[in-house]
């Protein structure tokens, strides 16, 4: 609401204290003299002057209102609400004065009437009694008129009482005073009553939420206490591993509590003892509790290097008061809030980014297309397929540490290999590069911003994705849509995608517009619907795409006749079933995926230990490994240690940059003195005043893209050569 703008909207500038300066003919700057500055560019000098004049007038008005405000606590109330309140108080004061006047008149005429009546009683009906009686009647009539004016009893002009009263007496009374006051009080009383009721309803909802969470907590505790304890002989022979894969009560979807406890005995597979699944408070002892993480990692490499794993330890039952953590996050950037691993899945953001390659075969097929328009259809299907893994994935991935990497070498099996690196921490940004011997290269730099809005969480990926096909030289670019997680506090969590994606072929000018339709309770459309149109540079539609981002995408070739255009031909294309081509269909989830964070077959293999990876690889991250093994308490402690280590490293780099500047060794612009962000690094995510971190990524370098003219981190080479030599001397110690 408007009343919340002052204290929950970050990035705003108070006009009353703003500095408005003109830079040149079209540019001007608005700043609050601190950490917030906006550089604005108008289309012309006239347009710029209109903006500056309007802003100066608004500033003058804001300054005047600030001076008139006596209560410094009114900053949280919008100016519109202040004005409305002042007008209401002014009108109410006027009506109170009218009522006071009526009260004085009633008292005055009442006293006079009392005196006249006393005099009448003292008379013994002498000849002058007629005049006295007439005077009493006039007094009584005036009293009646005044009272009626106050309580608003309708008097007609032909009323005898009105006719007997002098005109001067009638004009002295304010009509409808009491009724106007009552109507005004009732109108605003209803408004205030509604606001009060909303506050009460919100409090009741919060109390119900806390009660529901408390019941869930008790339910999970009872389920944990009632869990079957393995015999001592079984536990001593690696039985702690079997405990990982038995579905536990309360761990599945909350749609059907009756089906929460079931498993097929033959599906239970023994995990190696070295996985060390150890639950706090449990009397099941793992044989690996005394083995270090490094030793566990070596053993796991031996167990998993022969074949890709198809199972991970089942997600344990741990109670958590969600509201106690999320209530302090409303309106904030979640990447800057420390969150326990209870909200996470045992994968990092780098590994989630690599999951975009699950349907790499779409790019393989696109590379073999001779028609650029057909190729664009497969690229569009690949774009949609990257969201198919998110439909059930309600847990957040680990935020990568600065310098953390993740490689996926599938050159022998699938013909591609991929590398990700965390190139920035604030704002968090990851660079990704994948090469395929089947004729394509995919690269991207994604910055994830997220905001918690109370009932839902918005995740906005920023950055451009590039796909280049080697033989044809076709270069495609697109951006990701917004992901929204609903029912954060109460109800079952669910995820939706919304927005538009524009895929452009920069060589031919071909374009595809994909529309992700947001879910609506009132819509009859299929849920998670995606529509698209593939068009040539002239705007003529050649293909229509239709499907859902969680299931499949179909393609229809538009049949153009004489005088037809794309818009007229589209319905006929949809009606022709023989014209439909299936571009992509989602792979089924593994069995018991609901107990393994709803991971796909690819996701299950991403965190499997591998030989020869860099020391900074996500597979070697200790808190993530502990969480995968079910040791969440230890994982939380390890996570805090890693984050503190990262903070100390950043402070050390900033201090070194400051010392280098003082010694005259830093070659930065004079207009911006370190350790602040240099001019070339200033963005909305790195505003003026942000401490300058002189960190440089190891495998990526920041360059200006010749196609999009954007600054982005591009793979500079050297990783796979270092892996072949097993020379990791340049890698930082981040774990």
TrEMBL record:
It comes from the Eukaryota. One of its GO terms (biological process) is lipid transport. InterPro entries: OSBP_sf (IPR037239), Oxysterol-bd (IPR000648), Oxysterol-bd_CS (IPR018494), PH-like_dom_sf (IPR011993), PH_domain (IPR001849). Residues 1-60 form the PH domain. The gene is Osbp. Residues 608-685 are annotated as: Disordered. GO terms for cellular component: cytosol; perinuclear endoplasmic reticulum; plasma membrane. Residues 196-223 form a coiled coil. It is found in: Membrane. The keyword Signal does not apply. It is a peripheral membrane protein. The keyword Phosphoprotein applies. Belongs to the OSBP family. Transmembrane segments: none annotated. This is Oxysterol-binding protein. Keywords: Coiled coil, Lipid transport, Lipid-binding, Membrane, Phosphoprotein, Transport. Residues 617-665 have a biased composition (Basic and acidic residues). GO terms for molecular function: sterol binding.
């Amino acid at each position: 609401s408007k009343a919340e703008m002052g204290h929950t909207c970050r990035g705003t500038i108070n006009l009353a204290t703003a500095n408005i300066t003109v830079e040149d003919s079209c540019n001007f700057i608005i700043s609050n003299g601190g950490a917030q500055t906006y550089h604005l560019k108008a289309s012309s000098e006239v347009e710029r002057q209109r903006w500056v004049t309007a802003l100066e007038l608004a500033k003058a008005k804001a300054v005047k209102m600030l001076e008139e405000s006596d209560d410094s606590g009114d900053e949280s109330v919008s100016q519109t609400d202040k004005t409305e309140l002042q007008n209401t108080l002014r009108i109410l004061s006027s009506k109170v004065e009218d009522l006071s006047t009526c009260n004085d008149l009633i008292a005055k005429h009442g006293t006079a009437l009392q005196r006249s009546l006393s005099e009448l009683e003292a008379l013994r009906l002498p000849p002058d009694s007629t005049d006295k009686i007439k005077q009493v009647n006039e007094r009584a009539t005036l009293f009646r008129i005044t009272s009626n004016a106050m309580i608003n009893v309708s008097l007609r002009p032909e009323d005898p009482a009105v006719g007997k009263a002098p005109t001067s007496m009638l004009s002295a009374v304010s009509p409808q005073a009491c009724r106007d006051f009552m109507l005004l009080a009732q109108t605003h009383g209803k408004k205030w009553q509604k606001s009060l009721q909303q506050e009460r309803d919100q409090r009741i909802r919060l109390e119900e939420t806390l009660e529901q969470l408390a019941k869930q907590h008790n339910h999970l505790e009872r389920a944990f206490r009632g869990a079957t304890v393995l015999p001592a002989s079984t536990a001593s022979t690696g039985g702690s591993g079997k405990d990982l894969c038995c579905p536990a009560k309360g761990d599945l979807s909350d749609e059907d509590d009756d089906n929460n406890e079931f498993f097929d005995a033959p599906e239970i597979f023994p995990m190696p003892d070295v996985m060390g699944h150890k639950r706090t408070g449990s009397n099941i002892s793992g044989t690996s509790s005394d083995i270090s993480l490094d030793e566990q990692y070596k053993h796991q490499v031996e167990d998993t290097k022969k074949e890709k794993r198809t199972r991970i330890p089942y997600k344990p039952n741990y109670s958590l008061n969600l509201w106690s953590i999320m209530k302090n996050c409303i309106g904030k950037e979640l990447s800057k809030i420390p969150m326990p691993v209870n909200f996470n899945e045992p994968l990092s953001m780098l590994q989630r980014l690599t999951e975009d390659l699950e349907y790499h075969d779409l790019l393989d097929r696109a590379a073999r297309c001779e028609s650029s328009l057909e190729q664009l259809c497969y690229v569009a299907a690949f774009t949609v397929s990257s969201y198919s893994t998110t439909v059930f994935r309600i847990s957040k991935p680990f935020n990568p540490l600065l310098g953390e990497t993740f490689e996926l070498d599938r050159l022998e099996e699938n013909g591609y290999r991929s590398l990700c690196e965390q190139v920035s921490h604030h704002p968090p940004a990851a660079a990704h590069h994948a090469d395929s011997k089947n004729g394509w290269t995919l690269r991207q730099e994604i910055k994830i911003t997220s905001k918690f809005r109370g009932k839902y969480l918005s995740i906005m990926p920023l950055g451009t994705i590039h796909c280049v096909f080697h033989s044809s030289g076709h270069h495609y670019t697109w951006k990701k849509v917004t992901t929204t997680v609903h029912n954060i506090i109460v109800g079952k969590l669910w995820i939706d995608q919304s927005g538009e994606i524009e895929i452009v072929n920069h060589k031919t000018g071909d374009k595809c517009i994909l529309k992700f339709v947001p879910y609506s309770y009132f819509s009859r459309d299929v849920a998670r619907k995606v529509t698209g149109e593939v068009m040539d540079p002239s705007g003529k539609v050649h293909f229509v795409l239709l499907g859902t981002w969680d299931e499949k995408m179909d393609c229809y070739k538009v049949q153009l006749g004489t005088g037809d255009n794309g818009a007229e031909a589209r319905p006929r294309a949809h009606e022709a079933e023989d014209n439909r081509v299936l571009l992509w269909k989602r792979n089924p989830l593994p069995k018991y995926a609901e107990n393994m964070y709803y991971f796909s077959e690819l996701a299950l293999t991403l965190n499997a230990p591998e030989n020869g990876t860099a020391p900074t690889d996500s597979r070697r991250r200790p808190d993530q490994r502990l969480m995968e093994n079910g040791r969440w308490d230890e994982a939380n402690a390890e996570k805090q240690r890693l984050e503190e280590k990262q903070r100390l490293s950043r402070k050390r780099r900033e201090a070194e940059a400051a010392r280098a500047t003082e010694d005259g060794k830093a070659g930065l612009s004079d207009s911006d003195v370190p350790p602040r962000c240099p001019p070339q690094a200033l963005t909305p995510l790195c505003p003026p005043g942000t401490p300058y971190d002189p960190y440089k990524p190891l495998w990526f370098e920041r360059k200006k893209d010749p196609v999009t003219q954007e600054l982005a981190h591009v793979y500079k080479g050297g990783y796979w050569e270092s892996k072949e030599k097993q020379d990791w001397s340049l890698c930082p110690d981040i774990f």
